[in-house]
Structures are given as structure tokens and as C-alpha cells.
Amino acid sequence: MSEINILKELEEIVGEEFASNRSEDLYIYSQDPGASLSRPVDFVVMPNTTEQVQEIVKLANREKISIVPMGGGLTLSGLIIPVKGGIVLDMKRMNQILEINEFSRYALIEAGVTTGQILSLLNENYPDLQPPIPDAPPSATVAGNMLIHGSGYLSQRYGGHGAMINGLEVVLPNGEVCKLGSCAVSDYWFDRGPIPDFIGLFISAFGTMGVITKLSIQLFPKPKMREIIFGLMNDPKDIPDLLLKITATGYAEDILLGMQDKPEWMKGYIFIMTYITGDSEEDISRQNKALKRIYRKSNARFMKAPEKMRNLYLDKPIFAAGAADFRKGGGFEYVGAFMPLEKIPEAYEKGADLARKYGIPPTLGSRLIGGVHTVVMFFSYSFNRADPKDMENARKALHETNKLALELGGIPWKAELEGQRLTLEKMDPSYKKLMKTIKNTLDPNNIMNSGNWEVL
Ligand SMILES: Cc1cc2nc3c(=O)[nH]c(=O)nc-3n(C[C@H](O)[C@H](O)[C@H](O)COP(=O)(O)OP(=O)(O)OC[C@H]3O[C@@H](n4cnc5c(N)ncnc54)[C@H](O)[C@@H]3O)c2cc1C
Q1: CA distance readout (Å), 89 to 82, 108, 439, 445
Q2: Is there a single domain that holds both residue 267 and residue 368?
Q3: Do 365 and 398 lie in a common domain?
């Protein structure tokens, strides 16, 4: 079918205003804020109902056009830039918060709901509840974050965000709607089971298995008080001991570590932030004292932070201005990698060497998930987008970091195409075969974000 006829059909589904193939509209969808090169897009379309998504997917399947679901487009690793052209399905208009269940503590939302939107609704109307959100800008969608195995300030205590999905409504690649989780059996979206659990098929799949239109996410009780215990240490080798001791207390809501050459005062140290929560000053003070003792025993020094800095880091999401060397016209991209705790010291040392090799000030960080069951390591590289040499260096550093993470027994998180390729190269053949079988069964025409996770 000709391009003009496809556009006409898209316009009939969503209305003229919400479908386009004009170059001025497509320009922004052909890139993201990270270091990926731009790639062409043929159409952008913005549905506002599940039925419209179904019609668009049926059209794409019939015409064998690639279709890329997009939330806030903020993963930085090029996941929403089409690899094989086609349609970008911008989910922004599906932004209804459908239900807040205070008894079973969940929110049922449409896939375009942003993290800022859910946080502000709960803050205003449900002050005893808090959502799991990342430190990404508030225009990131809850779905986009959960679907990429994201994490945030509640993750050390409650686990990764992918595990906090109770249920999904999905438009499958053939256009059929499927419900997963307790909602497949009950009116309540309160749990994933106890039935065969296929929700994981859609997590870290980067939109290759279907379009999520609704999801239920877990909410958590909100403590009255929150505090940060700042610390500094000199030697990355002391990190595992410190983290094991802190997590054994059960006090920490979130633990963040950082090592960066900028600002100048941070150079040469590993920066530690342990977040604690409580209901009273006494409660906080007791945990504070215990954690300071642990810091000392693990060769870390307690650091009294200025009020301004404390307030900055208590904010949710944390405003990341200090997290990278933002030069004029600049940006950054990071390799996130899920790592085993014992490899974290080596990851900091080798990560810093790698950044220096490419003339980029080292900016490394990590966050604990589920009481050190996983540590997410961030190897961040800043760049000036206007400088081609800078961009080239950042891309080379990112590529080498993927290799480093895999060599250290880690797994690149929200991996861009090269990272996916390296991961597939190392993956057990039986797992790859299973991925291929499932993909071919669900999406025989390979229309869903084609080019990603492609097992040939
Ligand atoms: C400054 C900064 C800080 C960040 N901090 C964190 C952090 O603390 N923790 C963290 O986890 N991440 C962090 N991120 C990474 C990322 O921005 C977030 O995880 C973000 O929530 C991703 O959501 P999004 O809406 O931008 O997803 P998108 O980039 O739009 O999409 C992500 C992936 O999911 C797919 N997808 C999106 N919507 C759907 C759908 N409806 N159906 C099927 N597939 C879909 C897309 O195709 C894509 O593959 C950070 C990013 C920045 C820029």
C-alpha cells in the first residue's frame, strides 16, 4: 500500500491531528537524548484508546511495517528510534489513572501516565501512599520504566520495578487484546498469580512482544520521615563489606554510591548515601547512630552534608544536574549494568580507567536492588553533541563498557543495539532458541520494534 494510503488509514483511526508523516514532526522521533545516531521514521501516531492501538497494530501487521511503542523516550539508549523505519506509536495521550486501590495498594493506569503524574496525584490525594519511580525526569512514563527493568528509591527495600507489575493489558502483534495477571481471572489487579506468569515476557523486551496499554503497579506505605546518611570512602575494595553490613540491618530504603571527578570535591572518593525512614526523630536518630558505626567499621567516614545538598538529594526524583559533566550543548549516556556485588570494586576501577582512556571525566554510580541481590552499576559518559570527536569517543566508551560489564559477569541493562548484540553473543543457545520460538509465534511478521533482540 502506498505511503499516502497508510497515512489516510492512520488518520481515520486516530484523527488527522494525531497521525503524521511530515518531516518537521518526524524529526524529533528520529533521535533520542543519548549518543545514538538518528534513524529514519515514516509515521508518528498518537492513539488514545486500546481499540485505536489494536487498529494501528492490525494495519502494521497487514502491511508488514515496523511499529515502535514509545513512552517518554528517555532511556537514552536509542530503544525508541526505529531500526527499520515504520511507525512510532507515541503513547502520551493514553494518560488516565484509572484506579487507586488503597486496600491492596495498587494503581491501575494507562501506559502513557508519567512518573510525575502518579507522584503528584498520590502526594495530593493519598498522602500515605508512594509510587515506585526512577530518578529519570518526570516526563518518563511509569510503563516505560517498569518495562525496562527500571529501579528507583524504593528498590533496595522492595526490589526492581519490573517485579512490581501486578498485571498488564497488552495488544499482541496480531491486534488481539490479552490480560495478564490476576486481572485475567478477577476484577482486582492485585497480583500476578497464582497462574502461569507470562508478564516477564514483556519486561526488557523493548516493545518487541506487544504494546502495553494498561498496567497495575504496586504502591507502598509512605513513612513520615526520611533522612540521608552521607559517607565517603577511599578504596572501592571496601564497598562489598559496607553494603553487606548496611543491608543486614534492614534500615536502608535506598543506597546509592558514586565516584566522579566532578565536582572537584568528590574526586578521589567513593560517595555513599544511605536513605533511612522512620516515624519519629528518635527512630531516625537510632538508625543514624547505628549506620555511622557501620561506616566507621568498613573504613568509611561519615560526612556532614550542607543543608542545600541534603535537600537536593531528598527530592524525588533527584535533579541530576550534578551527575554528569553537562557542557554547553551537552548530554550524557550511560551503560547501566546489573552486576553481582563481588564484582563492584573491579567495575569502579576499570570503569574509571575506561573513561580516562577516552578523555571523559569518570562518572560512576550504583544503586542496590533488593538487599544486594543485584547492584545496578552506571558508567556514565558526558559529551558535547556539537563536537563529532566527543560523540565518537562517547560511543566507543559505551561499546567497550558493554564488553567490560559482560566480562565481569554483569548484564547490560536497557542495552542499545550493540549491547543487545554482545549479550546475545554470550547468551546460552537454549535461551536464544526459546526467545526465537516465542517471538516467531507471537510476531511472525516481526513488526514489533524490529531489529531489537533479533535472534537470527
Ligand atoms: C537523568 C536521567 C535519570 C535516570 N534515572 C533513572 C533511574 O533512577 N532509574 C531507572 O530505572 N531509569 C533511569 N533513567 C532511564 C529512563 O529514563 C527511565 O527508566 C524511564 O523511566 C524510561 O521511561 P520512558 O517513558 O522514557 O521509556 P521509553 O524510552 O519511551 O521506552 C522504553 C522502552 O520501553 C518500550 N515501551 C515504552 N512504552 C511501551 C508500551 N506501552 N508498550 C510496550 N513497550 C513500551 C519502548 O519501546 C522502549 O523499548 C534515567 C534517565 C535519565 C535521562
Answers
A1: 11, 21, 20, 18
A2: yes
A3: yes
